[in-house]
Amino acid sequence: MSGAKNAALPILASSLLAEGKSIYRNVPALGDVRTMGRLLARLGAEIGEKPAGTMTVDTARITELEAPYELVKTMRASVLVLGPLCARHGRARVSLPGGCAIGARPIDQHLKGLAAMGARIELEHGYVNARARRLRGATIVFDVVTVTGTENLMMAAALAKGRTALENAAREPEVEELARVLNKMGAKIRGAGTSLITIDGVDELHPIEHSVIPDRIEAGTLLVAGAITRGNVLLRDCLPEHLDAIIAKLRAAGAEVAADGDGIRVRGKADLKPTDISTQPFPGFPTDMQAQMVAVCSVADGASVITDTIYLDRFTHVPELRRLGADIQLERNTAIVKGVDRLQGAPVMATDIRASAALVIAALVAEGETCISRIYHLDRGYEHLEQKLAALGARIERTSP
Ligand code: EPU
After folding, report:
1. How confident is the prediction along the chain (401 residues), in pLDDT tens digits per residue?
2. How remote is the CA of residue 27 from the centroid of ligand 1, in Å?
3. Nearest residue CA, atom 20 of ligand 1?
4. Could you please report the per-residue DSSP string of 176-233?
5. Please, are residues 149 and 178 in contact by the beta-carbon 8 Å criterion?
6. How far apart are CA 41 and CA 163, in angstroms?
7. Torsion of CA 271, 273, 274, 278, to 10 degrees
8. Facing residues of 48 across strands?
9. How far apart are CA 40 and CA 30, in angstroms?
10. Residues forming the active site
């Protein structure tokens, strides 16, 4: 497995909290990671990308404090520079993310938290302007569980004066990983991985070396690929404890999934069973695996009901899967998937990172050839997925650069 995209992005942003050169390893070569590199470079950081898998960020000369629209609109995680810039430089101007393929995705919780920590927040011309001479600790209760919101405020609080309590915080492994990184930098954070995170602000943080945790969503996607093809796939370098909800659903669908040495092995069975899913914040079933499970259920023996409670509009894969012959009805944020005997290859279009993974998975079992266009969406979040699948026996190739 490659390094985790959603861990690497906040970790790269956290480099802004210290002055000097941080070295990150096991950084996946992904579109979104390159976008974060471009953003940090734009702020004045010096970025090194050698050897492969290593990224160095030198923040000795930060000259700009703005995340411009053209970068935020291609990657919403750009908003992760808001907390660090505000905390260390007292000021940040970050474009407001607009809508995106998976829904509205507001950042009101990030802004509410910064305001509670004493930042003056103004919205003008599509940008958030945040200012604070020094942020101060506060008790913040999130109205919704937000991953990047928790990460942004945890980074801001690390350099604030006094104690911050983040209540109803996200418990995702990527939040825990960021807390590990911040603590290595000298922060005082307790409770990450639970819904109450306490941060005692310090005056200064220092650069570090760190190796990023493996990507649980990439692992889940490959487990699903193994299950749908009735394959036998061993995943190495993954952390099974991050995959409990995904493994439980694959087992319910009839796949055999078991620990195997330092990895996980999936063995697909002849008949896939239907399974109902409702996405939830961690440790529940992740929204980032919803599209891939819709693909699996589209060839199961019966009807499955799959609800996304996190992103109500995250179903752009459904019309494309229907082009492959899937029988899926959408009722608001619920997909009713009636398994069909076989899917048929067809030209389809990728619309977001996980939707494109779902199309690849369906195409693996569709009769004949499927041609997926706009795979830059796939490349935003999966490192050489076609090579990993080809190594497992899939007939898959990249036909344009
Ligand atoms: N929300 C608000 N207000 C906010 C923030 C969030 O209402 O201020 C809502 C969102 O609209 C959504 C819910 O809260 O309904 C959860 O959103 P969250 O903020 O947790 O999402 P995110 O932090 O923007 C991260 C991942 C996503 C993943 C979600 C949910 C990163 C860089 N991105 O996004 O990953 O789907 O958490 O787990 O960590 C992906 O990798 O394909 C991806 C989209």
Report:
1. 999 999 999 999 999 999 999 999 999 999 999 999 999 999 999 999 999 999 999 999 999 999 999 999 989 999 999 999 999 999 999 999 865 666 667 899 999 999 999 999 999 999 999 999 999 999 999 999 999 999 999 999 999 999 999 999 999 999 999 999 999 999 999 999 999 999 999 999 999 999 999 999 999 999 999 999 999 999 998 999 999 999 999 999 999 999 998 899 999 988 899 999 999 999 999 999 999 999 999 999 999 999 999 999 999 999 999 999 999 999 999 999 999 999 999 999 999 999 999 999 999 999 999 999 999 999 999 999 999 999 999 999 999 76
2. 21
3. 146
4. HHHHHHHHHTT-EEE-BTBSEEEEE--S-B---EEEPPB-HHHHHHHHHHHHHTT-EE
5. no
6. 31
7. -130
8. 56
9. 15
10. 100
Q: What residues contact 165, with CB distance under 8 A and at least 6 apart? A: 138, 139, 140, 196, 197, 198, 199
Distance CA 287, CA 166 (A): 23
What is the C-alpha separation between 221 and 288, in angstroms, rounded?
Answer: 9
d(CA 170, ligand 1 centre) in Å: 10
Residues comprising the chain, all counted: 401
Query: Residue 7 and residue 13: Cα distance in Å, rounded?
Result: 10
Q: b or e along 87-111 (b: 16 or more beta carbons within 10 Å of the residue's beta carbon)?
A: bbeebbbbbbbeeeebeebebebbb
C-alpha span between 300 and 326 (Å, rounded): 11
Q: The tokens of 244 are what?
A: 């409990």
Which amino acid belongs to residue 226? G
Q: Of 187, 186, 264, 183, which Cα lies nearest the Cα of 224?
A: 264
Ligand 1: which of 5, 144, 213, 316 to mutate, most ligand atoms within 8 Å of CB? Answer: 144
Strand, helix or coil at 308?
coil
Q: Which atom of ligand 1 is nearest to the CA of 103?
A: 11
Q: Tell me, in angstroms, the distance from the centre of ligand 1 to residue 77's CA.
A: 9
Q: Please list, in sequence order, all residues whose beta carbon lies within 8 angstroms of the beta carbon of residue 50, skipping any fewer than 6 positions away.
A: none
Question: Is the CB–ligand 1 distance for residue 109 below 6 Å?
Answer: yes
